[in-house]
Structure formats: C-alpha cells, structure tokens
Amino acid sequence: MSDFPWEIALAALGVLVPIGLALYEFAVVGRKRLGYRVQMDTTATDAVHSMYETTGALQQLRRDGDGEPLVAPSFVLLRIENDGATNIVPEDYSVLDDDKVGIRVHFPGRHVAGMVVTELSSDFLRPSFGPNSGLHVHDDVIELPKVPLNRGAHYKVLAALDHAPDAEAEAEPKVVGGIRGGVDTGAIRETSNHGRAPRRILALVFFLVLIVLGQLAVAQLTPRGSLECAQGELTLTGSSAFKAVGEAAAKSYVDSCPQAKIKSSFSDSGGGLTTLTAAGDAAQDGHPEMISFSDGKKPDDMPMLIPRPIALSLFSLVINEEAEVQDLTADQIRDLYAGRIDNWEQVGGADLPVRLVTRDLDSGTRTALTERVLDGA
User: Fold this and answer.
1) CATH architecture of 321-372
2) For the PBP domain, which residue ranges apply (predicted)?
C-alpha cells in the first residue's frame, strides 16, 4: 500500500464523525423543538354488530347542548411534548403576545364533542390549563394554551369527536403551532415513537462498523513489519550478562521487521565499551550502528559514549553448599576479598579453605562489586 496513513485517517474519522453528529444533534437539531404524537385515533362504532350488549355507554355518547347522540363517534389521544434540548417558555410560542393560544388542533371532517387533558408530566403544568388560560373548543378545533415545557416535559389531550354532517370524509388531525428560534421554521412537527433507535443513531452505528472493518482491511493488506520498522544492520555487544535477553529481543524484532539485520557479539562490559568507542571513531558521523550493554558505569576516559539506563540488575554472591554458610555481612564479604578470612570456619561454616571465583578485570559485574560492596578495594 502507499505511504498514506490510512489507519490514522480511519481512526480520526471514527472520532470526528461521532463528535460532529453529537454537536449537530444537540446544538442544532435538538436546540429548541416542539413536537406532537397522535397516539390514538379510532372510531367508537360497532364494526361487528355484536348481538351482545357489550357497547354499553359507547352507544350513549351525546353532544353537549342539544343532547343528540353521536352519529359516528371517534377518539383521538394527542401528546404534546418538548422534543428539544432546551426549555420552552410561553414567550417562545410563535403567536401574538395577547393571544393566549399556543397550539391549534384541527380535525377535518369531524366535530369536537368534548376533550380533557388526561396526563401531565409534572404537576406544575396544571395551572397552565386554568380559567382564561386559552384552553378552548369550538367546531372542529381544540385550542391549547401556551404551556411552558421543560426539556422532555409533555401533556396529553383526549378528544371525543363526531362526524360532521356536511363533511364528505374525515382526515387525520392537523396540529398548527410553532416556537421562535426553533429548528428550521420552528413549526411543531410530528415526532416518532421512541420504541426503536432513531435513524441517525442507526446510521452512526453502521458508519462505525464500516470504520472498524476498514481498519481491519488496512491491517490485513499492510505488509507485516512495514510500520515503524528500522532498516539496516545493528550490532549488539558488551556484557555477557545481557546475551540471552539481548539475542531474544533481537530475534523478536527481526521477526516483526524482516528488513532489519541484528548481529550479536557479547563478551564483557569493558570490551564492549572499547569496541563501541572504536566503532564511533571509525564512523564518519560518529554514530556507529552499534549498542553496547554494560552492567557498570561508563568510564571517565570515554566522553563520547552516552549512557542510557535500560534495566535494574540484581547481584548475588553464591557460596558452595559444602561451606555450610547461610549468610554474610558486608564486613565479612570485604574481609573475604581482602584475604583476612581464608577458612569458612571463621564465619561459622565448615572447616574448609576459602577459594574465590570472580569475573575478569573488564567485567562490569566485577566493577560494580568492587565499587559498591568492596568500597573500591
């Protein structure tokens, strides 16, 4: 593939697109929005003409005023809600200031026989429907007052209707109203039932799935080891204490980055530092392709070398079990190396002579022991 960082680009899209959609949803779409839902619109006529007396009071519905029975009664349950992200106050309704009506609901082809407010999301909405609030019914219209609605607040209206005598056909309710500063024109709009995820959420999930699949495809099509891999040759030298871990790390790196070639030549700390110094002198830029591992500090006569701590080493003194010595103090260790103790019996062990086995003079381990335990002796 090309050098274009597809994985970074896909990851950036996976982050920026959800952020953009969230900002659009809450800062633009959900800024201020008045919505409604027609939760029920059904007739109250007996479609099966049952021989049993099951209709009861539904057959006794009458008009208010003349007392005539309803010819083709129907019921509509309407939910008015704040579907936005900010509160709605009476001054937000797009009507004249002296108009108490905020929303008008028309029922084409039907006559309003009666209505009630059946549900309030909060009790503090109750005073909004008091006398002179703007709540009114006439002919085919229900007028609703300018109700303040906090975010997520709602109320429901149940209307009993009858077929208008001079109407040819009935139509769905028409809700008219709006708010200032609302989404688009600010007009009230029908909202969907929240029983399933909105289309924007489904689209976002689908987009994120595509991003994940794209990243997997890029990972599969990218040659192994082509990302963040160094090329060329490198030589590892220095203390043999690092031989096992150094060669294991080199093998792991080469397995991931086949373009790299790593050689190892471990001996001792002093020899490794000397080799590195000579390689630096021979290199044109003074930076040879070499790393030397040492378990001692850098000598003062090698100013061009730059030390970098990479690990913490633990040193132990090992005593033959036949000596029968379990523990030694720091002073006893110094006396052993100074020759003042030449028999293990002198430190509570067996009657056996002391024989010291140590590293050569160039060993970093020996240097560390000499400086840190033997006080440089």
Assistant:
1) 3-Layer(aba) Sandwich (3.40)
2) 229-375
